[in-house]
Fold this sequence. Notes:
Layout: H1 4-53, H2 60-75, E1 93-99, E2 104-107, H3 115-126, H4 131-136, H5 143-146, E3 148-154, E4 157-166, E5 171-178, H6 179-215, H7 217-228, H8 247-294, H9 298-327, E6 338-341, H10 342-358, E7 363-368, E8 375-378, H11 380-397, E9 403-410, E10 414-421, H12 450-460, E11 464-469, E12 475-482, H13 486-491
Parallel strand pairs: 7-9
Antiparallel strand pairs: 1-2, 1-5, 3-4, 4-5, 6-8, 9-10, 10-12, 11-12
Amino acid sequence: xxxIRSRTLLLVLGVLSLSLTLMTYKSYSDAxxxxxxxxxxxxxxxxxxxQGLVGRDMPHSTRQALQAxxxxxxxxxxxxxxxxxxxxxxxxxxxxxFDEQARVVLQSASAPAGALAxxxxxxxxxxxxxxxxxxxxxxxSHATQLAGFHTVALDTYQWRLxxxxxxxDGLWILLGEREDVRGELVGKVxxxxxxxxxxxxxxxxxxxxLAVGWGLRPLQKMVELIKARAPDNLAPLLMASLPTExxxxxxxxxxxxxxxxxxxxxxxxxxxxxxxxxxxxxAVLRIHAHNALExxxxxxxxxxxxxxxxxxxxxxxxxxxLLTLARLDPSGVRLSMAPLDLLGYVRNExxxxxPLALDRDQELTLDADEAGDYxxxxxxxxxxxxxxxxxxxxxxxxxxxGHIQVSLDAQADALLLRVQDSGPGVEADLREKLFERxxxxxxxxxxxxxxxxxxxVVELHRASISLGQSPLGGLDVCVRLPKSSCAGQLANTH
Length: 494
């Protein structure tokens, strides 16, 4: 991906180029309009000067002398025939003087042929006269169409014409100028305005590049600081005088480092506790194995093997719960939230758990209103783990011949799952400790992870759990599961 510096440079240069293009186009349009106005004013002024020089009663010899003098003046030539202080644009200016019968009275050498005929062409097309009558009529009869400015095509060039009517002498003065003169001048104005911008653009790009680099220097310092840190250094990043834009990034990184630190500490405690819990069962298994090997009496050997089998079963239960808890930890959980009929699901799960209760002559029942709506959005496997742990705990702590009751209650926005047993119960001040990992009461053979797993499943579903006194005499565990989909949004973020 392109760097922020390059992206910023391209964006700034793109905006500048677009702005310069629009400003140049506007300047070109304004220059074209103003130059056209200036040339039009010069045409009108020159026509009025000719009007003052040429009269109807001027002798023919005087008119010829004036013709020669005007030709020399327009072409920039003196009496010697050489160009004196001339200008390239002068030869592109022309004039003609007509009388009322459209006869040429005076004209410059550069005057285009057919200018008057081009101006009279629309008159011939619109008049209800023959071409002969239209030409033979006095030009003053078409003063409205002829007077003023016109743009016509003559001799492969576009000409700007100005026609002035001298009513006193009955003359028509036609001044013309080629449009390429104006276009050339406008082009020079545009180029002279654009070229400095084009030449300054690379220098401006260099300045922007340096300025962006200077602005990104705090970010570069942060990158260098992170690269220089040791992998095991999870202390917060401390940087002085951070720009406002980098403060949220620095705060987010420090928050992430804190979360990673907490997670690593949690993992360390988990590994230490797991090692402690597994050390004792393994030592016991070794003792039972030695006893079985060294037993001379078959009865003693059988008893040692039975103890070994029970120890393996307990170690297997500890390992299974450890793996379950690790799977539900934030670093590895991937719940799949989907619509679920909780009543049908609980009924199927309890059918698999009934043998546990029958082994201890206990009664396992389900109490639910069949007419209720038990649909919600949840992860079925993790809810199965929750139910198995609650029922297993109830079976373990209830006496032989006891009773375990599972009930479901459908509310408007949540479902209540309750597991009650007839065991000895737990004092109110000790109930919260049941959620701590590896906490066990009495001579229990469990690993002390059951309710920790239940609590983790409850957190992932944004549910709530409470412990109380069961009417049956033992512990009452109540889980409130919301029906909304917010639980799925939370779980999928882990």
